[in-house]
Every structure is written in C-alpha cells, then in structure tokens.
Amino acid sequence: MTPVWWWWSAGCLLGPTAPEGAEATYDAVWADMDRHYGLFEVKPDVDWDALGQDCRALLPSDDADAEALYAALICLLGPLRDDHVRLLRPGADGGLWSAGRLEELERTDFTEAVSASWMSELHDQDPTLRWGWVDPERVGGHAIGYLHVRTLDVAHAVDAVDAAMAAMAGADGLIVDLRANGGGFHSVLEPIAAHFTDHDLVYSRIRRREGEGYGEWLTYDLEAGEQPTLAPVALVTHAFTVSGAENLTLAMRELDQVVHVGSATAGAFSSATWRDAPNGWLYAVSVEDVRDADGESHESVGLIPDVQAESTLEETRAGIDRAMEAAAASLLERVAD
C-alpha cells in the first residue's frame, strides 16, 4: 500500500503553465480519473460528468493563468473528499493540496506528551513506535501495556513491535494506539496484527479499477501469530489515523478481544498512484475500492469506534486525554481481578 502523508499542506501554488495548455491538462486529468478512480461506486452523490462540465467553465482563456487552472482542478477534485487524491505543482511554493477532510482539520485531541503522562515506564528510542506500561494507579493496579505504533511505512516497524510485544508478554491488557499514524504497507501491518490472533481470518476485500470496470475482488488475510497475545485490547484511533493504519484498524476490529475507542479514522483506505499531467503538474489517483470483511465501504466516513471519546483542544492543553481514559475504562471492565 502506498503510504499517505497527510501533513503536507496546501498553499499558494504559483508557477508557469506548460505550453500544452490549461484545457489539455484539465481534460487529461478528468479522463484519467474517469477511467481509473476506484471509488465512484461508493460515492453516488458525485456526478462526475456534470462536475467535469461545471468546473471546466473555470478554465482560463489565457494558458499562462496557472491559478485559474489550479482553481478549476480543485473544483473538480475537491468533491471527492478523498485524502489520497492530491495535486502538486513541482517547484512551486506551498506544498501539496489534498481533496480530503484532513486539509481542514487541526490535530487538537492528541499529543505524545499527554499520553506519556499516563505511563510509569515508557520506551521512546525508536522512531516507529513507543511502548511501555500504564501507571498501575490509573488502571486498578493491573499490568496494562501500551503500544503506540507511529508508522507502518518501514519494515523495521515489524521488528520493533515484535520486541515490544515480547517485553510486554503476560500483560493483563494492552492499549494499542494508532493516533497520528499516517499509514504504510500491508506487509507491515499484517504481521503486527498477527500478534493478537490465534486463528487465520479475512479482514478486507479489495478490487482495483481497470478502465470501464474493476478487477476481481481480492481477499486480504491475517495469519495467526506464532505466540499471540489474547489479553483484552483497547485500540485507539482518531481522524489522523490514515490509510494503512486504517487497514490495520480493519484487521484489529475483527478480533473478539479488541474494543475500538477514540474517534473516527480518516476514511482514506485506497492505495494511490501518482500521474504526470500534460503540463508537468502531478496528481494522485485512488485506484482501489477497499471494503471490510463484510463488504462494507468506510471511505470518506472512517471507522467509527465502539466507544467514542475525544479531547477538546482545551482539555489536551490541560493534560487530559479522553481517548486514553476510555481505553483504560474499557480494559478495566474486561481484565480479570
């Protein structure tokens, strides 16, 4: 799976339009999305033909007017509400524009410092994760492990999680925190999720857009872990749990001992591929239709937790983490005395 980097921000993207012209660029992007965007079927409110005509009216009469072309493309792509659909003008100031809702959000409900205040022991030497033990006074004297997986985009994360899980063997329960995880690869998320299952299971079904239709549905399987941890788990997410981290959430939600807490994930599951527009700009297309094991799409909506809990900005500044509180409460209801 192609990682998504949601923190790239849009700005004033200035630069000359190449000689191919605004109309050629706009029409090429529209046609490519028409044939390869994987999510039109689950977004019935998007009338792609009508949108193409309406936004085309914004095209400039002067091909040198790069800002007008940029506005027309944002008009076209914005209604898809897809964090994997992106537009980039190389060499221009400002970075990357995304069609998803994360462009409009600020991360106000989570900081690593606040969650760290819950720990009696915390290991934070690895860029891919943090792990440790929750202060027993906060969890009724129980031994509750904490695993914050920061990223799934490097293979080393698997080894790091293996070591952390070995160190927390015998825990009464675990908090698995996927907040601020921008995604990564199936080859990384699957062995991580396998730590929590003693049986094989299907966690996702994916098909790829191929021109006028789609390829066959492919099932994504989770294999049983060699020494699985079956203690109660509280899985924590929020809006900045994106892409591969959402696929990991799909897998974890299939497990009986897992309760999902926090707030909804981003709702951006598909892999994306970068394309070259005729004028030298770049754009990204979501090419897959990703469903859960039951065939339901959560695109643009996200995965809604079993227990919803989210701190306000004021609470976060005051050191309050509502999602951690909900995770602890969930575990206390399920761990054996």
Report on this model:
The protein is an alpha/beta fold. It has a domain of 200 residues: 2-enoyl-CoA Hydratase, Chain A, domain 1, CATH 3.90.226.10. It is built from nine helices and 15 strands. Strands 3-4-5-6-10-11-15 form a seven-stranded mixed sheet, sandwiched between helices. A four-stranded antiparallel sheet has the order 2-1-13-12, with helices on one face. Strands 7, 8, 9 and 14 form a four-stranded antiparallel sheet that branches. A hairpin with a 5-residue loop joins strand 12 and strand 13. Helix 5 packs parallel to helix 6 and helix 6 packs parallel to helix 7. The N terminus is likely disordered.
Question: Could you name the key traits of this structure?
Answer:
seven-stranded mixed beta sheet, 15 strands, 2-enoyl-CoA Hydratase, Chain A, domain 1, 337 residues, alpha/beta, four-stranded antiparallel beta sheet, disordered N terminus, single chain
Q: Based on CA inertia axes, which overall geometry fits? A: elongated
Average pLDDT score: 92
The name of the CATH architecture of the domain at 112-269 and 291-332 is Alpha-Beta Complex
Distance N terminus to C terminus? 41 Å
CATH topology call of the domain at 112-269 and 291-332? 2-enoyl-CoA Hydratase, Chain A, domain 1
Which percent bin holds the helix content? 25-40%
CATH class of the domain at 112-269 and 291-332: Alpha Beta
Oligomer: single chain
